Amino acid sequence: MAMVPTSISYVSSSQLSSIIPHPRVAIVDVRDEERIYDAHIAGSYHYPSGSFAQRMPNLLQAVGARRIPSFSTVRGPSCARMFMNYLSETKEAAGIKRVMILERGFNGWEASGKPICRCTALPCKSDHS
């Protein structure tokens, strides 16, 4: 039986920034076109909300050993719930126990002076510093 995540929690930019160096954290950007124009959180994975449902198996494979996917706000909460539902139905939950949603999303992250990246690599190869 798959291990189902136990919680979805909201985290501030400062809280997420302090745990990003932990190898078990994966940041998932679910913005669509905005990511191309507005930049993104350094080191994040891009899974646009428009195709998120179809790409959840790819996301699960991409985060691999990382156990705490973190989503941004706006579309993030619905994608986080969709991902948790997917995990509850699959046998490949990969031990994910917690899903986080970034309060104020990318805009709040950038406004608080946290590291952003403007690369076009998928996934972003930038580190979080």
UniProtKB/TrEMBL annotation:
Coiled-coil region list: none
The reaction(s) this protein catalyses: [glutaredoxin]-dithiol + arsenate + glutathione + H(+) = glutathionyl-S-S-[glutaredoxin] + arsenite + H2O
Source superkingdom: Eukaryota
Signal peptide annotation: none
Oxidoreductase in keyword set: yes
One Pfam entry name: Rhodanese
PANTHER family tied to this protein: ARSENICAL-RESISTANCE PROTEIN 2-RELATED (PTHR10828:SF38), M-PHASE INDUCER PHOSPHATASE DUAL SPECIFICITY PHOSPHATASE CDC25 (PTHR10828)
Organism: Spirodela intermedia (Intermediate duckweed)
An MF annotation (GO) of this entry: arsenate reductase (glutaredoxin) activity
SUPFAM superfamilies, alphabetized: Rhodanese/Cell cycle control phosphatase
Catalytic class of the enzyme: oxidoreductase
Protein name per Swiss-Prot or TrEMBL: arsenate reductase (glutathione/glutaredoxin)
Any one of the GO CC terms: cytoplasm
EC number(s) stated in the UniProt entry for this protein: 1.20.4.1
Record function comment: Possesses phosphatase activity towards p-nitrophenyl phosphate in vitro.
Record keywords, A-Z: Oxidoreductase
Rhodanese domain residues: 21-118
